[in-house]
Write a structure and sequence with these properties.
mainly alpha; about 425 residues; 19 helices; elongated
């Protein structure tokens, strides 16, 4: 063999060895950081459900209607909380006509509801929790007309019906079947966050009309429907973002109910306020816990991937953690293979595969949810990503890992590198 060819082969072998050793290092570093601060990390402390999975103040919610199926409830919920604008790259998203909130772009005139603004300042923002002060003062004709227009919106027919749902299949409502298996959970679209505030404002207007007519219990029931909708989204959302949005809607309802019973107290008000205090205390505890975790972030950086995986497995198996958070934990658990060299090269550990197998058996209620759980479990082997404005270094990084993945028949090397380079480009 000619010397020049021999030297070339030696150089290629050395380059291949260097790629095999060096290429995974940025991937491991990026994913360990992601695992430490993943959206699933706070799930146990941002719960709304009791420790046994029950809903607090369930008697406040409308009576459950088992004739409303998971699919219909999911469609109603997705139309109430549609996704943000979806580009052509998300062709797997189902097209649904959002329910219009005609009042969303028409906030009350500054002359209306002065009692519902800080210091009665017309320049201050409208505060839905103060609207019952306007009711106690006596609504003007203009205020009553505005609230009446909001209360007459056709959206409330869907809203009131969905509030009776026992569950919702948001997977079938959100994605085209069969669900593509080459997407990742964190690339999926998120709902319009502003809808939570607009919907809560609308509920306040409806409740104000009942309170103005002396029907406090009817006002309380209207607010209870918002609580039920929030609980539904919190429990059956697709990910942590939707779970948190549902929790926010429920907490908005709790704040409104407190204002109603403080402004118009009745025989049952002390018990109602005590129940509200217990849930509000839980919310404050979660906020404090999040602050404490933030302050100890430096020590968290030393956490081993195995400990972080155990955290997500605990969240996945806890009955007090809503399904939305458990979906997120399942997705993060799948991607945790990218943060550990052994899992990256040889596949997930036994504890991870056991937790995934249990989730595939216990979590899905429908065929659509089965496909979604399968996607969350297998995305580390099948997802495909595009880097956002990748640099030359990022392109070289992706190319080297893709070459290594092809040589070793290990798709995780490609998937994990693609995610790391896409995140670095953001």
């Amino acid at each position: 063999m000619p010397k020049i060819l021999k030297r070339l082969l030696i150089a290629v072998a050395i380059a291949a060895a260097l790629i095999a050793v060096v290429a995974p290092i940025p991937t491991l570093r990026m994913h360990r950081r992601f695992l430490q601060f993943s959206p699933a990390a706070d799930a146990p402390n941002r719960r709304l459900l009791d420790t046994d999975g029950r809903v607090p103040m369930a008697s406040w919610m409308p009576a459950p209607d088992t004739s409303l199926g998971l699919a219909d409830a999911g469609l109603a919920l997705r139309r109430l909380f549609p996704f943000n604008a979806v580009g052509t790259e998300r062709s797997y998203v189902r097209e649904l006509e959002p329910l219009p909130m005609l009042w969303e772009s028409a906030t009350p005139d500054t002359a209306l509801f002065p009692d519902a603004r800080a210091n009665n300042d017309p320049r201050a923002m409208f505060d839905r929790n103060r609207v019952f002060r306007s009711v106690r003062r006596g609504l003007t004709a203009e205020e009553r007309a505005y609230a009446g227009n909001v209360a007459d919106d056709s959206l409330w027919r869907v809203f009131d019906r969905a509030a009776h749902a026992v569950g919702a299949d948001l997977v079938a409502a959100s994605f085209i079947a069969p669900l593509a298996m080459d997407i990742a959970h964190f690339e999926m679209p998120i709902p319009r966050i502003s809808r939570i505030s607009a919907l809560s404002d609308g509920v306040a207007m409806r409740a104000a009309l009942f309170a103005a007519a002396g029907q406090r219990d009817s006002a309380d029931a209207v607010i209870g429907r918002l609580y039920a909708i929030g609980v539904l989204l919190h429990r059956d959302g697709l990910n942590t973002m939707e779970g948190l949005l549902g929790r926010r809607a429920a907490m908005n309802a709790i704040a409104m109910r407190r204002s109603l019973h403080e402004t118009f107290p009745g025989p049952t008000s002390p018990a109602v306020l005590a129940a509200l205090d217990s849930v509000r205390w839980r919310d404050s505890s979660a906020t404090q816990a999040a602050r404490t975790r933030s302050e100890s972030a430096a020590s968290a950086q030393s956490a081993a991937p195995a400990a972080l995986r155990a955290r997500d497995i605990r969240a996945l198996q806890s009955p007090s953690v809503a399904r939305a958070y458990r979906f997120e934990a399942l997705g993060v658990l799948s991607m945790s293979a990218c943060a550990d060299l052994g899992s990256l090269l040889f596949g997930p550990d036994a504890d991870v595969t056991a937790a995934q197998a249990a989730a595939m058996q216990s979590m899905p209620r429908t065929a659509a949810e089965s496909a979604y759980v399968a996607l969350l479990v297998h995305q580390v082997d099948s997802a495909r990503f595009r880097a956002l404005n990748p640099s030359g270094l990022a392109r070289a990084f992706r190319a080297s890992n893709r070459a290594l993945a092809a040589i070793t028949f290990n798709p995780r090397l490609r998937v994990c590198a693609d995610i790391a380079s896409s995140a670095a480009a953001m």
